[in-house]
Specification:
The complex is a heterodimer of chains A (about 525) and B (about 140). Chain A is mainly α and about 525 residues long. Chain A has one domain. Chain A is about 75% helix and about 0% strand. Chain B is mainly alpha-helical and about 140 residues long. Chain B has one domain. A two-stranded antiparallel ribbon of chain B has the order 1-2. In chain B, β1 and β2 form a beta hairpin. Classes of the chains: A mainly alpha (about 525), B mainly alpha (about 140).
Chain lengths: ~525, ~140
C-alpha cells in the first residue's frame, strides 16, 4: 500500500531520471516515457479504487508523524485527478511521437515532460501546504523548459511573461503560507483545518485566504490575472500546449478547491460572493477574448480561462451538488480541452496553418478530422448528450438551487458564446471553401516544412480518437462518473474525515492538549 | 569568443589544480553532511565550482571532456539514486517511503547517504549544465 501511495510520484521521478541519463538517445527515451505514463495511469486507477473503497489513503514520508513530517494523502478527489493526469500523460506521450518528435526529444522533451507530470502528481497528492508550494515550483520550472523547447523569439517572449506572472503568484503563495504558519504554527493541511475555526484572529485568516486565492488564481488563470496564459500557450509546440491546457491551470483549480473546502469552509459567507464574482468575470472575459481571435491556438487558450470560471462556481456555492459539478467539470474539461489542442496540431498538419482566415475546406478533404473535432468542440459548448452538457447541467442546477440566479444565467449565456467560437472554428477551418493559395506569411504561423509520415499521422490520430471516445462515453454513460464526482464532493466536504485520516483520533486528543 | 582565448596563463595552469582540490573537498563535505555542516547539496556545489573553474580556464569543451558524461546524465542518475534510496524502507511493510535505514551508524552509512549522493550528482549535473550552456555563446 505504501508503495502504491507514492507510485504517482516515484514513477514520473524515475522516468525523468532515466530519460535524462539517456539525454542524447531519443530512441531509448520514448518507450521509457510511454511505459512510465502507462504505469502512472495503472497505479492511479488502483489508487482510485482503493480510495473509493476504504476512504483517504495516508502515508507519512520518512515515518515522521503528522503534523511534523510531510503527509501524502490521496482521497477520491486526488485519485480522480491522478487518473486524469495519467490519462493525459499517456495521450500526450503518444501524440509527442508525431511530427517534430526528433527536434523535441533532442531539446530534452522527455525529462521535462516527466518532471512536469511529477509536479502535477505531487500537487495532487500532498497533504502539506508548503510541500504544495514545492510541487508548484517543480511544475513551474519544468513548464518553463517545455515552453521554450524550440528556442524561438516568440517562445522566449511568451515564456518570460509566463514565468514573471507565475512568480508573482508564487510570492503571494509564500506570504500566505508564512502568515498561516504564524497563525496556526503548522503547515500540515489537516492540522491547519483542525485549528482554523478556533483561531481568534479570523480577520488575519481571511487575509491569508485572499493571498492564497490570488496565488492559486494566478495558476488557474482566473480574472484578472489570466494574461500570462494566452501570452504563452499559443507559442508552445502542440504536445506541450496540450499537456499545459490539460493540467497546469487545473492544478490551480485543485488547490483552490482543496484549500477552500478544508481551511476556509467555516467562512463561506465572506469567500462565497468573492469567488462567485471572480467566476463570472472569468467566464465572461475568457469567452469574449476567444470570440475576438482568429488563431485556433488563441481561441482555445481563451476558452481555457472561460471554462475555469465554471469550475469555481462549485467553490462559490459550496453545496455538495455544486462541488460535484466542479469536479465533474474539471475531468470533462481536461479531456476535451487537451483533445482540442491535439486536434489543432493536426489541423495545422493537414491544412498548413493555425490561422482560421487561411484555412478552409478541410471537411471535404478530411471528414474524419471534422467529426473528431466536432465531438470535443460541441462537448465544450455543452451540447447534450456530450460530457460538457452534464458538467454545465450540474453547475447551473446547483446555482439555481442555491438561488444564485445571476451566476446560473451567466454560466448559461457563456455556454452559448462558447458554441459561437466553436462554430467559428468549424465554419472557417472545415466548412468554407479553401482560400486560393494563401499569400504572405504570418509570424509564428508558418506551414510545416515537411509532410508527415504515416507513423507520425497514426501517433497523432490515435490519442485524439481515444479521447473523443472517452468524451462520448462520459456523455452517454454518465452515471459512474457522476457517482465518482459525488463521492469526491462528499470527501471534500467531510473535513473531519480528512483530519482524522491524517492525524488519527487518539493523536488528535493528545495534540489538542499540547497546543495553547 | 570562447573561454580559451580570454583566459590568462595563470588561470589555465591553475584550472586542473583547483579542480583536483575541489573534488576531494566536495566528497568530504558530502560525507560529513549528515550531522555536521555540509551534505549533498553543498558538496555538489563545491564540485560544480571546481568544474566551472576548469571551464573558465580551459574552455567549456575541455570541461565537457573532463566530465566524461553529459551533465544531464549526471543529473538523471542523481535523481534516480535519490528516488531509489527511499525504496529499501518499504521492505518493512509498516514503514513509510524514505524511512532511513542505517547499516553502520558510526560511519554514517545508510540510505540517507545514498540519498545525499543522489542530491550531490543532481546538483553537479544541473549547475554545470546551466553554466556550460551560458558560456557557450
Amino acid at each position: 500500500m505504501q508503495l502504491l501511495l507514492i507510485a504517482p510520484l516515484l514513477i514520473p521521478l524515475c522516468a525523468a531520471g532515466i530519460t535524462a541519463i539517456f539525454w542524447s538517445r531519443p530512441d531509448i527515451q520514448r518507450p521509457i516515457g510511454l511505459a512510465a505514463a502507462c504505469l502512472l495511469l495503472g497505479s492511479s486507477v488502483a489508487l482510485l479504487s482503493a480510495a473509493w473503497a476504504i476512504g483517504p489513503l495516508v502515508g507519512q514520508m520518512g515515518g515522521w508523524r503528522a503534523p511534523f513530517g510531510i503527509t501524502i494523502i490521496i482521497d477520491v478527489f486526488s485519485a480522480i485527478m491522478l487518473v486524469i493526469t495519467g490519462l493525459m500523460a499517456v495521450a500526450v506521450a503518444i501524440y509527442a511521437m508525431g511530427p517534430g518528435a526528433v527536434e523535441r526529444d533532442k531539446a530534452g522533451f522527455q525529462p521535462l515532460f516527466h518532471s512536469l507530470i511529477l509536479g502535477v502528481a505531487g500537487a495532487f497528492s500532498t497533504g502539506d501546504i508548503f510541500n504544495l508550494y514545492v510541487w508548484f515550483e517543480v511544475m513551474l520550472i519544468a513548464s518553463f523548459g517545455l515552453l521554450v523547447l524550440d528556442r524561438t523569439r516568440e517562445q522566449i517572449d511568451g515564456g518570460l511573461r509566463y514565468v514573471m506572472l507565475n512568480l508573482v503568484g508564487t510570492i503571494f503563495f509564500l506570504m500566505g503560507v508564512g502568515l498561516l504558519y504564524g497563525l496556526t504554527g503548522t503547515l500540515n493541511l489537516a492540522d491547519i483545518a483542525r485549528l482554523a475555526p478556533e483561531i481568534e484572529n479570523q480577520g488575519a485568516l481571511a487575509a491569508v485566504g485572499v493571498l492564497l486565492l490570488i496565488a492559486f488564481g494566478a495558476k488557474a488563470a482566473v480574472f484578472p490575472i489570466f494574461n500570462w496564459l494566452p501570452a504563452a500557450y499559443h507559442t508552445a509546440s502542440m504536445p506541450v500546449a496540450a499537456i499545459f491546457a490539460a493540467l497546469l491551470t487545473k492544478v490551480g483549480v485543485y488547490a483552490i478547491i482543496r484549500v477552500f473546502t478544508l481551511i476556509f469552509a467555516h467562512d463561506t459567507a465572506f469567500f462565497g460572493p468573492i469567488i462567485g464574482v471572480i467566476a463570472m468575470a472569468t467566464m465572461v472575459t475568457g469567452v469574449f477574448g476567444a470570440a475576438s481571435h482568429y488563431d485556433v491556438r488563441r481561441i482555445l487558450s481563451f476558452h481555457i480561462i472561460s471554462q475555469i470560471g465554471y469550475m469555481l462556481v462549485g467553490i462559490a456555492l459550496m453545496t455538495p451538488l455544486a462541488i460535484a459539478g466542479s469536479v465533474f467539470y474539471v475531468v470533462h474539461h481536461i479531456i476535451v480541452k487537451a483533445n482540442l489542442f491535439l486536434i489543432a496540431g493536426v489541423i495545422r498538419e493537414e491544412g498548413g496553418f493555425f490561422g482560421l482566415r487561411r484555412l478552409g475546406g478541410l471537411w471535404v478533404t478530411k471528414p474524419l478530422l471534422g467529426l473528431l473535432f466536432l465531438i470535443p468542440a460541441l462537448s465544450l459548448a455543452g451540447l447534450p448528450p456530450l460530457s460538457g452538457f452534464w458538467g454545465k447541467f450540474a453547475v447551473i442546477r446547483a446555482g439555481l438551487e442555491a438561488e444564485a440566479y445571476i451566476l446560473a444565467g451567466v454560466a448559461l449565456s457563456v455556454g452559448l458564446l462558447t458554441l459561437f467560437s466553436m462554430i467559428k472554428i468549424w465554419n472557417e477551418a472545415f466548412w468554407k471553401a479553401a482560400p486560393v493559395a494563401p499569400t504572405g506569411t504570418v509570424k509564428g504561423d508558418e506551414p510545416p516544412a515537411t509532410r508527415w509520415t504515416r507513423r507520425e499521422r497514426a501517433a497523432s490520430y490515435v490519442p485524439i480518437m481515444a479521447l473523443a471516445a472517452l468524451t462520448l462515453t462520459i456523455g452517454l454513460w454518465t452515471e459512474p462518473f457522476a457517482a465518482l464526482s459525488m463521492a469526491a464532493a462528499e470527501g471534500l466536504l467531510d473535513r473531519q474525515g480528512y483530519i482524522e485520516a491524517v492525524l488519527g483520533t487518539p493523536q488528535l486528543a493528545e495534540l489538542t492538549g499540547g497546543v495553547e | 569568443m570562447n573561454g580559451v582565448m580570454k583566459s590568462s596563463l595563470i588561470l589555465r595552469t591553475m584550472a586542473p589544480l583547483v579542480l583536483w582540490l575541489a573534488l576531494p573537498v566536495s566528497i568530504i563535505v558530502l560525507i560529513q553532511g549528515h550531522n555536521n555542516p555540509g551534505g549533498g547539496f553543498v558538496g555538489g556545489l563545491v564540485a560544480a565550482a571546481g568544474v566551472i573553474f576548469y571551464a573558465l580556464g580551459r574552455g567549456p569543451e575541455a570541461a565537457r571532456v573532463i566530465m566524461r558524461v553529459p551533465p544531464a546524465t549526471l543529473c538523471g542518475a542523481g535523481i534516480l539514486l535519490a528516488a531509489l534510496s527511499g525504496l529499501p524502507a518499504l521492505l518493512d511493510p509498516s514503514a513509510a517511503f524514505l524511512t532511513h535505514l542505517w547499516w553502520m551508524t558510526d560511519y554514517g552509512l545508510g540510505t540517507a547517504l545514498i540519498f545525499d549522493i543522489g542530491v550531490y550528482l543532481t546538483v553537479v549535473g544541473t549547475a554545470t549544465a546551466i553554466f556550460l550552456a551560458l558560456i557557450r555563446g
